[in-house]
TrEMBL record:
InterPro entries in the cross-refs: FAD/NAD-bd_sf (IPR036188), GMC_OxRdtase (IPR012132), GMC_OxRdtase_N (IPR000172), GMC_OxRtase_C (IPR007867)
One function term, GO molecular function aspect: flavin adenine dinucleotide binding
Residues annotated as the enzyme's active site: H571 (proton donor), H614 (proton acceptor)
UniProt keyword RNA-binding, yes or no: no
Listed cofactors: FAD
Record's protein name: GMC oxidoreductase
Domain Glucose-methanol-choline oxidoreductase N-terminal: 308-322
Signal peptide as annotated in the record: 1-17
Length: 635
């Protein structure tokens, strides 16, 4: 597709998303067909990807997507006008906001999590940071799933297929020293990505300091090799600079399509097996948000749960599929005892290293100009609204991050991995590290031990990152976040016992496996080395937190981690893991729920552990691969 035509298509999609033809866009049960071949539960990143591909390839079969939210008239980028880098976007689409239970191991702090409550799901509200995990993440996923189909070679083609990457102009690439390998992309998918036409004036300060700290700078980090200082594209259109998301690429841009229906403002309550789970496909029980009317949708082919890592397990639990102990406590008849449903919650978390400068910091422009300099902000807005977007507002949330492996962080890495291996081998009791209502289940214990084996291998691999630090500026006060990419602790997503239709209860349980603190401490100490580099010393970098005295004492630094960590960087996953049933798994490599005929899960629930990446690009790739699996089965 030519760049001009791509621009026109994208702009048309932006204006048409709120006025989709009635042939496909439904608000009432009376508008639905008597039955559907496929019902996709959730119009988010993976769900819309699947629906688009199924309706494209299987034109004789009808697909219905059921979405809790609505079609948003505007889906601005994370940093579009009139935002100022500091104030959140005032016109952002609706999002779910969750606050977890207090976390005793982390000073009773809570995790704040958001997810998209709009067509397009989290792809319509996220930070637009469009990276991929390392090949070793996906090879570990394949080991745990028991199938090589989900290793790096098995999913890499779908990363490519899902996106159209546009190279920056030679002038922009030279100005910011962008590097990339176009062969890592090579697709022509409906989601766009590119690099910004702008970086803050001091972006290179940290870039130089990371190099002085010994971190390498690979040409490309999206091809499976991801250790070093990385340039990361954003999910945005290369001409308009605006957000590219599933609600556009996988819905508005492909309508009207006669076999593709969308029902908005409805909640899927549960799937129903009148004659038992082997008699599927199930019916889908749906609730209208307008009047609470309940009705069933008849399905002749399959139900595909794509409600996301926080809502897919609640649909399953309301359906009687989940940990029997919890279902009994909730008064829900057990249809399938799958203890892994909602029991493997993970998210990226971590504390910052912060600093100030004792010498003048005279770069221009810096992010503070957006809040304090009305002239500069007006010029930035005008630049963004040019026929080809330019300037600060094309930056989204930033394009750069470091990814560093544990062997490159601490010489004591083997002490950490040996501690994990002893747990995995049964030399210590791992049950206390599991959620209380499943910690006596042999399958959950066996599966967790296998996860620990895989994670020990990852953490011992000098090419597999365990730390991420994204950045776009060094403006004071400076911050380097320490993302724990592969946590060992496991939380839960459970129905609210007082109201099964309310939002679920999240219990993050961060830090319940004490080895997570060993890794946190090593990573914080490594990041403190940034402030001793020649570049940072030249600027008079002065540490604010944790400080030398705290960092020198394990107990004091552990207290700093507990008090200063963000418990969620909004990457929840893994609550319906792809593992064998005897290992506590919920779905198999074909994404079918164990023991439930005609029911699959396709979203970030299915990963057994967190990858070293933000999750948007992975959600598209999983959707693309799932669609091929389903299409092949029905062909």
């Amino acid at each position: 597709m030519g760049l001009l035509r791509a621009t026109l298509v994208s702009l048309a999609a932006v204006t048409s998303a709120a006025s989709v033809p009635n042939a496909s866009f439904k608000r009432q049960v009376s508008q639905l067909r008597p039955s559907y071949d496929f019902v996709v539960v959730g119009g988010g990143t993976s769900g819309l990807t699947v629906a688009n591909r199924l309706t494209e390839a299987l034109s004789s079969k009808n697909t219905l997507v059921i979405e809790y939210g609505d079609v948003a008239q505007s889906t601005p980028g994370v940093f579009d006008p009139p935002t100022d880098w500091i104030t959140p976007a005032p016109d952002a689409p609706p999002a779910w906001s969750f606050v977890s239970l207090p976390n005793p191991e982390m000073g009773n702090s809570t995790a704040f999590v958001q997810a998209g409550q709009v067509l397009g799901g989290s792809s319509a509200v996220n930070g637009m940071f469009f990276d991929r995990g390392s090949r070793f993440d996906h090879d570990g996923w394949a080991t745990l799933s028991g199938s090589g189909d989900w290793n790096w070679n098995g999913i890499y083609p779908y990363f490519k297929k899902s996106v159209t990457f546009t190279e920056p102009s030679p002038a922009i690439a030279q100005r910011y020293n962008y590097t990339w390998d176009v062969s890592a992309y090579g697709g022509s998918g409906p989601i766009y990505s590119t690099f910004a036409s702008f970086q803050w004036a001091d972006q290179g300060v940290l870039g130089a300091a990371w190099g002085e700290l010994g971190i390498q700078r690979p040409k490309e980090c999206a091809g499976g090799d991801k250790e070093g200082v990385c340039w990361v594209p954003a999910s945005q259109h290369p001409v308009t600079g605006r957000r590219s998301h599933a609600g556009l690429g996988h819905y508005a841009n492909v309508q009207p399509r006669a076999n593709y229906d969308l029902l908005v403002k409805h909640q899927v309550v549960r799937v129903v097996y009148p004659n038992g789970p082997k008699s599927g496909p199930p019916m889908v029980e749906v609730r209208s948000l307008a009047d609470n009317h309940l009705f069933n949708v008849t399905v002749t082919g399959e139900v595909i749960l794509s409600a996301g890592a926080l809502h897919t397990p609640t649909v399953l639990q309301r359906s009687g599929i989940g940990p029997s102990s919890f279902l009994n406590n909730a008064g829900i008849p057990v249809v399938l005892d799958l203890p892994g449903v909602g029991s493997n919650l993970q998210d990226h978390s971590g504390p910052p290293v912060t600093w100030n400068y004792s010498k003048p910091y005279d770069y221009f422009p810096l992010p503070s100009e957006m809040a304090n300099n009305a002239t500069f902000k007006a010029e930035a807005t005008a630049a963004f609204n040019q026929p080809t977007a330019q300037g600060p507002y094309t930056l989204a949330g930033g394009n750069s991050a470091i990814y560093v492996s544990l062997p490159h962080i601490t010489s004591q890495y083997r002490n950490i991995t040996q501690r994990i291996r002893r747990m995995a081998a049964g030399h210590s009791d791992v049950a206390p590290y599991l959620p209380p209502d499943v910690r006596s289940d042999p399958a959950m214990i066996a599966g967790y031990r296998q996860q620990l084996h895989v994670l020990a291998d990852l953490l011992e691999n000098p090419e597999a990152p365990s730390l991420e630090t994204p950045w776009a500026t060094s403006e004071a006060p400076g911050t380097a976040w320490s993302f724990l990419l592969h946590p060992l602790s496991r939380g839960t997503v459970r129905l609210d016992l007082a109201d099964h239709l309310a939002q679920p209860i999240l219990d993050y349980r961060a830090g319940t496996n004490p080895v997570d603190f060993d890794i946190h401490l090593a990573q914080v100490r490594f990041l403190r080395g940034l402030l001793s580099t020649p570049t940072m010393q030249q600027h008079g970098a002065t540490e604010i937190g944790p400080g030398a005295a705290v960092a020198a004492d394990d107990e004091a630094l552990r207290g700093y981690v507990k008090q200063q960590s963000f418990l969620s960087f909004m990457h929840p996953c893994c609550t319906a893991a792809m593992m064998p049933k005897p290992k506590g798994g919920v779905v198999g490599p074909d994404l079918k729920v164990h023991g439930a005929k005609g029911l699959r899960v396709v979203d970030m629930s299915v990963m057994p552990f967190l990858p070293s990446a933000h999750l948007s690009a992975t959600a598209y790739a999983v959707g693309e691969k799932a669609a091929d699996i389903i299409i092949d089965a029905w062909n």
